[in-house]
Amino acid sequence: MSTSENDASASQQIDASVQAELNRLRESIDNIDAAVVHMLAERFKATQQVGRLKADHQLPPADPARETRQITRLRQLAQSANLDPAFAEKLLNFIIAEVIRHHERIAEEAGNGNATAAEAGNGHATAAGA
């Protein structure tokens, strides 16, 4: 039996009011996921601008001090929002690593020989980014 057949057969066994509530909640989750994607796209537009500015002025792609401040800030925000701060930090670290990768690429394209994140004294891509 395929997953969709399993879902269909499970749906038939669920009370209609429960299925309606499940559908409502899933629709809400889908909307939130879409908002998260759009917010990340906006964040990356801004960090691309930061990357170009850094490349234009021969600044390193990574900024460990800012990354540390951002991690601290995000952990506090997560705590106040009843979200696991460790999870929030992992997510931010993932985003920052991607931002640094973008900044390194922008610097390479600009041809100014900026240091990589490791060469900038960071040793690894941490999480705050731009």
Task: Describe this entry's structure for a reader.
This protein has helices spanning 3-13, 16-56, 64-80, 85-110. It is elongated. The longest helix is centred in the first third of the chain and has 41 residues, at 16-56. The protein has 130 residues and is mainly α.
Helix share bin: over 70%
What's the gyration radius in Å?
21 Å
**Helix-strand sequence:** HHHH
Tell me the β content: under 5%
Mean pLDDT: 85
Global outline: elongated
Describe, in short, the structure shown.
This protein is mainly α. Helix content is 73%, strand content 0%.
Main features:
130 residues, 73% helix, disordered C terminus, mainly alpha
Topology of helices and strands:
Blueprint: H1 3-13, H2 16-56, H3 64-80, H4 85-110
Helix pairs in contact: 2-4, 3-4
